[in-house]
Amino acid sequence: MRIAIVGASGAVGLEIIKILQERKFKVSSLVCFGSSRSAGKSILYKKESIKIRQLRKSSLKDFDIVFFSAGSSVSKKYAPIAASNNCYVIDNSSAFRLNKDNSLIIPEINSNDLKKYKSKIIANPNCTTIISLMAIKPLHELSSIKRIVATSFQSVSGAGNVGITELISETKRFLNGKRKARNSVFERRIAFNAIPKIGGITRNLYSEEEMKLHNESRKILSDNKILISATTVRVPIVRSHSISLNIEFNKDVPLAKARKALNGFAGIKNININDPMEYPTPLDSSNKDNCLIGRLRKDYSVKHGLSLWVVGDQIRKGAALNAVQIAECLQKK
Fold first, then answer.
1. From the candidates 32, 87, 127, 291, which is the catalytic residue?
2. How big is the chain by its Cα radius of gyration, in Å?
């Protein structure tokens, strides 16, 4: 297939290139696009050096699939152009996720939705939504869900390479006795800190990131009755997101059935889910494809409730891997 990547030099773009190689995706040609700052730089793909081209409106034709990982403003401007040239677009931004004409896909959960939508622009969900729903979906099949309370602990690479750079530099400054922060990526100093706000605050006082989890989950699960209250927190971790989930069901879900459902779900790996002393951490899931689950237990504060912990690499399954898996679905189609 003829593949293009917009935002190829970013953290997600580079990971897409890496995963295309790992999964032996059939690529007949690969073109990489970037900003004027990135144009001219080279990226290695299968021992071949590929020069990044500056993105122009006239660039987006004669491709089968175009991956977009350059932010919402770029996607809104250029993705429709690619689609009008008969290219499938897999977009990692929030630009099209809630549009009624665009599918929002996690292949293990709702790949059949690719058949329901005519638009060639396919949205990749938010990273926290993907990782959370990988744990929620197999339980949702056991019983309808009344309410979810989610708290995410999100690594700095969710803000891109600049987030990693800021964490490292601020950590060095702090350890060298320089207590005054020089933060530009995050609103507060991220080193040795936790920031309980990701994105702007909406009219209902939830952050944009929190509302993404609520709105996107309902669309992906095709269930507008689920109520989700989320708190998203940026933490000083380089890679992988963690989410604490408290799920209230409409009927009883025994622990044994929950364990079996989670154990049998593609893309999930349980860290000895029967042993309460075994649990996954962000380090365990970094650079891995599977989301990891632990701390599964009954929630005794409600009649039908479970609590659990899920971690996943937000650059891989939370973005690049999910995008490539969507491309694999299109390839089969």
1. 127
2. 20
12 closest CA partner among 328, 320, 323, 322 = 320
Reference 198, options 210, 190, 189; nearest CA is 210
- Rounded Cα gap, residues 184 and 9, in angstroms: 21
Of residues 87, 214, 241, 291, which has the active-site annotation? 241
Whether pLDDT at 274 is above 70: no
- What's the CA gap between 270 and 237, in Å, rounded? 22
Q: Indicate if 241 belongs to the active site.
A: yes
What gap in Å lies between CA 244 and CA 231, rounded to an integer? 10
Quick: pLDDT tens for 24-80. Answer: 999 999 999 988 888 889 999 988 999 999 999 999 999 999 999 999 999 999 999
Euclidean distance between CA atoms 108 and 133, whole angstroms: 10
User: How far, in Å, are 48, 51, 291 from residue 307 at the CA level?
Assistant: 47, 48, 16
Band (pLDDT 50/70/90 cuts) for residue 81 is very high
Find out whether 191 and 167 touch, Cβ atoms under 8 Å.
Answer: yes
Which fold is adopted by the domain 129-315?
A: Dihydrodipicolinate Reductase; domain 2 (3.30.360)
Residue 127 annotated to the active site: yes
What CATH code is assigned to 2-124+319-332? Answer: 3.40.50.720
Distance CA 34, CA 328 (A): 24
